[in-house]
Amino acid sequence: MRARAERFLPFALLLPAVAFLALLIVIPMIQALILAVIAEGGGFTLEHFERMAGDVNFSDAWRNTLLLLILIVPLQIVLALVMALLINSRFRGHGFFLYVYAIPLAISDLAAGILWLAVFTERGYLNSSLQGAGLIQQPILFLSFENLPGILTAIVVAESWRATAIVLLILIAGLQLIPRDFFEAADVFGAGRFRRTIHVVLPLLRPSLQSALIIRTIFAFQTFAVVFALAGRNMPVLAGEAYVWYAANRNEHLAAAYAVLLLGLTIVATVVYLRVLGLREAEVAR
Amino acid sequence: MGFALVAGIGIERATKVFARTTAIKGISLDIKDGEFMVLLGPSGCGKTTLLRCVAGLEHLDDGRITIGDRDVTDLAPRHRGIAMVFQSYAVFPHMTVEDNIGFGLRMHRRPKAEITRRVAEGAELLGLTSLLARYPAQLSGGQRQRVAVARALVMDAPVLLMDEPLSNLDALLRLQARADLKRLHKEVKRTTIYVTHDQVEAMSMGDRIAVMREGSIEQVGAPMEIYDRPASQFVGGFIGSPPMNFLRGSVRAGSFEGDGFAFPISRVPPKVDGRGLLLGVRAEHLRIGDQGVPARISVVEPLGDHALVTALVGKTPIKVQAPIDVRAKPDDDVRLAFDESKARWMDAETGAAL
């Protein structure tokens, strides 16, 4: 009786999470998959994907999404790594910095976008500061559709501010999992701070770096609210197109096609990370 | 590596304070070239802290440390000319055995050919040659421990520090590793500080032992000197298995009297009449017979080559190492004879030997 109860206990404990995932992730995902390949009148079709690929904004959205990914992810990983190593060195007051770094985590991405809009807009904080300091005469149109580098910079800054903290937290947790003895052994055997980081800390941090990269890349594919708040339709991205086709153009099939494309990209990126950064079998303790 | 090849270690008035407690309290200790010094004591006595101060992993709050003729008090660990074996081994899981052993040499930017040669030598010395391509996860605990020792030895640092390197091995392996370490020390003759809480390890390996207690050194000396003439009740009770027996009492007119016993005694330290004393006698210096101190047997434990007998002298349990064929049974009334020249007298208040 007791043994039976114990056999079922793990499943019982997993059930709420499984139910949650099924209800909010798996079912919508299957629905999206079906929507993307079903013709208006029923039956299998690829016409939605063809229409998506032929859309005027498609190539821009595709380019912008990848551009943001390439700019934001490495920047955030490097920033977060430096911040994490700094905090992990336990200097006086490191706890304060951790809290300050983590504040943006509590803000929704749309709110973060609007916040940075207030900085970058024509009469925003940045322009008034620069004018006040006498550095410029006329306000700079950072977010004009003619100023792609400006828009891009604003989005990269806002996204980095908003989402670096999650990477930071993952890396700090990873650093704290590394036994102190490894740091000390590196010190004793002659590695300076820099080489200790390169030869000991980073390799041991690989599992956490992998998680952080996967999470960040998935989020980067989904970048949407911040872009929308700062650039509106001036800067189409894949996730934004899915939203526009669903909400504005009322074409759920095309929106689903975009969503499926994003899902595919996410899976490819994740598999690549797992392959490239995964631990060799021999390194894993028995 | 630019360090003197032999170097003694000087520790002067070393003090280390942690948030609330003073971990080491003004310790001074001189360790000679090539000496194997054991820091022995119960957990929390400050032995590991003292070792970490020598390594440079902790900074002294007061005092200074010299290695050879260099003052290393404010130097980073890597500039001190030390190598270390950690209690957890700290063998890097992401490197092969070969890369682990050569780690220190690579960090000190030695030429490739030299690294290859010395790693091969180190692996040979520790019997790791066939395992060089493995990762630590593929090794047993004993093999990992040997990788940690090899990594420290190939450094050719004049000082070798070991923090309880055998405590994570099972009993049988520990015996083997203990003999191996002793042989290695004979071959390479590095000045060694070895931290342990195991008095058998300390006795069998150390040229000298520093017995520590509550942040201070209680006694320093050769193993047998400490065993035969403990400087305090603490040392006598910590070293030896079973620990030294202590009878509490006082001397009056040539008789030692305590709770439920009184017996004549001839060799008494001067001017102790009426003072509280401890009489310390080791189990192997006691004989069960028909002469000596009256006692009653309470337990007899046969241990193969001898029997460990517990007898009550008055109310104090006393351990006696008796021949295995001893005929004593529980509740027998016997007498215990002992060689007074081997006994130690201590002050009952301070525990210090007289």
Please, could you describe this protein's structure?
The complex is a heterodimer of chains A (286) and B (354). Chain A is an all-alpha fold. Chain A has 13 helices and no strands. In chain A, helix 1 (2-37) packs across helix 13 and helix 3 (58-88) crosses helix 12 (238-247). Chain B is α+β, with helices and mostly antiparallel strands and 354 residues long. Chain B has nine helices and 20 strands. Chain B has a six-stranded mixed sheet, with helices on both faces. In chain B, helix 4 crosses helix 5 (141-153). The model of chain B has no long low-confidence stretch (mean pLDDT 92). The interface between A and B is medium-sized, with 24 and 26 residues.
A few lines on this structure:
The complex is a heterodimer of chains A (286) and B (354). With 286 residues, chain A is mostly helical. Chain A has 13 helices and no strands.
Beta content of chain B:
25-35%
How many structural domains can be distinguished in the coordinates of chain A?
A: 1
Query: Which strand-content bin applies to the residues of chain A?
Result: under 5%
CATH superfamily of chain A: MetI-like
CATH class of chain A: Mainly Alpha
| First and last CA, distance of chain B | 48 Å
Q: How would you classify the helix and strand content of chain A by structural class?
A: mainly alpha
Shape of chain A: globular
Count every beta strand of chain B, where a strand is a DSSP E run of 2 or more residues: 20
Number of strands of chain A: 0
Helix share of residues of chain B? Answer: 10-25%
